[in-house]
Specification:
mainly alpha; 2 domains; 4 helices; 40% helix; 0% strand; extended
């Protein structure tokens, strides 16, 4: 994001899209990245889940390559995604 303003007026492939990243929709309005970060990422929080798991004396597993592969294989088996390429 910090390097995007330097692309204004250049032939860089992202130059035509700079307003999407840098300009506000109106006075006092957020930019597109700010909307995304505040509306999507702000909701991604596992605090409540961790609290409930702790109350049930359970612990969330670490999301490592092995667990991620297991999730992808299950999603593929259910027909939600194509067959994954396993992670190492």
């Amino acid at each position: 994001m910090a390097r995007l303003p330097a692309l204004r007026g250049t032939e860089h492939p992202l130059a035509p899209f700079l307003p999407l990243f840098l300009e506000q929709a109106g006075p006092g309005q957020p930019t597109v990245p700010e909307v995304f970060l505040h509306s999507v990422h702000a909701r991604l929080d596992s605090t409540a889940t961790a609290r409930r798991l702790g109350a049930a004396q359970l612990e969330a597993p670490a999301l490592d390559g092995k667990l991620w592969n297991r999730y992808l294989i299950a999603l593929a088996a259910a027909g939600h995604i194509p067959e994954p390429t396993p992670l190492p």
